[in-house]
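A student in our group prepared the protein record below, which I am reviewing. I have pasted the whole thing underneath without changing anything:
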Amino acid sequence: MARVSQLAQEFDIKPSRIVFEITERETVSNLSLLEKFVLDVKLQGFSFAIDDFGSGYSSFQYIKRFPVDYIKIEGEFIRNMLQDEVYMAFVKSIVTLAKELKIKTIAEFVEDAEILAAVSALASIMRRATISVALRQRCRSPAALRQPAGNAAGTIRFPEEAC
């Protein structure tokens, strides 16, 4: 951790702009060691995210145990939510959970305007839920997906450097 802090300082990068992720699919053999790492990360001002949320069996354990800043919803759920009501229910429940716990949500695999519109609608329905969009590399630009207008009820954001 000391090296990361040193590099952030050396290159004048605010710790709040760096997010460490744990992939929910990965098996963690030593949760106590991970917990210490996450607390160290947070104390230094860095953020922490759970990637692929919902893909494994320990999602809720991680949220309960670690001070999570972001949940990145499993891309398969986002990609298929318009064709499968079960995936849509998963996405809605994750967004609701995150909102209640004041955790930001990131939707991965937003690959077309239709999915973007659905994610935007969820942000509005969930009132004050913030859903950031992780655009796929094959997209040309955020404008190519025609970002929907934001509103006071919900927020949808593109990361600063999309694609």
Summary: Residues 85-100 form the longest helix (16 residues). The helical segments are 2-10, 31-43, 59-65, 75-80, 85-100, 113-125. The domain at 19-157 is CATH 3.20.20.450 (TIM Barrel).
